[in-house]
Fold this protein.
Amino acid sequence: MAKKAAHSEIPDYEIEALARSLLPEIQKYFESEQGKREFAEWKTRQKVQRADNGHT
């Protein structure tokens, strides 16, 4: 029987196959101008949220 991810009915090999097929597209997005811009905006929001919650 195939090994399954923790707390999942989905076998690891299925998760790994999905990850292998999605990773190149995710990488392309984060390397694009839009991806870089949105990631920078997300980081700024995270920084503000941490500051609002008293974290550094």
Residues 24 and 49 are 30 Å apart (CA to CA).
